[in-house]
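Note to self: the last two entries modelled the partners one at a time, which told us nothing about the interface. This time every component goes in together.
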Amino acid sequence: ASATITHDNGRVTATLPTGESVEVLLYGATVVSWKDKGEEKLWVSEAADLSGGSAVRGGVPLVFPVFGKPTDHPATSALPQHGFARTSRWEFLGKSTTESDGKGGDGGVKLDFGLGPENLSAEAREAWKGEFGLIYSVALTRGALRTSMLVRNDGGEAWEFQVLMHTYLRVKDITTTTVEGLAGAPYHDKVTASAATAPTSPSTLSITGETDRVYTPATVDTALTVSANGTPAFEVVRENFENVVVWNPWEEKAKGIKDFAPKDGWKEMICVEAGQVAGWTKLEGGDAWEGGN
Ligand code: BG6
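The predicted structure of the combined assembly is written out below.
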């Protein structure tokens, strides 16, 4: 048996014979559901706009070519917060399947999505002139969801970008949720707008209030573990992504986010986001870069 794929109404769904599934909107190539062992693993706001009118509040929105709204980078300063990838309609490029190896290894499915200048709104194209091609791959197997982004410079001139998978993980209770794997990692704290003097991060990070930090661990080889009450719930493995953003808006901030529902939903989510966002990644004409998690 192989995976079942459906592609309609701007949404691609893949379901493995064993029941695991992933749903991706063409709008933003946003993963809006990932189910494993019958459980939804991602948090999506009940007030999220899934119609393609605005970036999805939850799931895995994609950040490219800029993270946040930096004021010191003229080439991206005309773009909206987090860039255009999460608000553009991507193309579904197709699927590939990996069959079970017959030795207990499970078969899986990979969905590929593409975005290029021709898919952008006139405003987005006007705001950023890079000649680019993106291929985003979402691979589902039993027990894991892996995503990767290939960034290509299709032009003759170099440009710089930032990229990030803005993953909203569903957790049972933020007050008993911990993140391990950031020991000693320096970080920039966006809440207090300060840089932590490295190395300061404890081996176990507990979330006790509004959190918005950009970490730069010493190596990409350390996996992060998100645990509930000390029991591992997620493992985040990174390839080429040097930074990790940890975000939880907490009570007050969540109140002010209009598409955030229920209002106490911050208790059941944590964003652990892998990407290249602390600085800029430069890509020469004709070159490509790939990262994943
Ligand atoms: C996080 C940023 O990645 O995304 C936060 O670090 C930001 O600063 C959050 O508030 C949500 O951004 P947005 O644009 O989806 O509201």
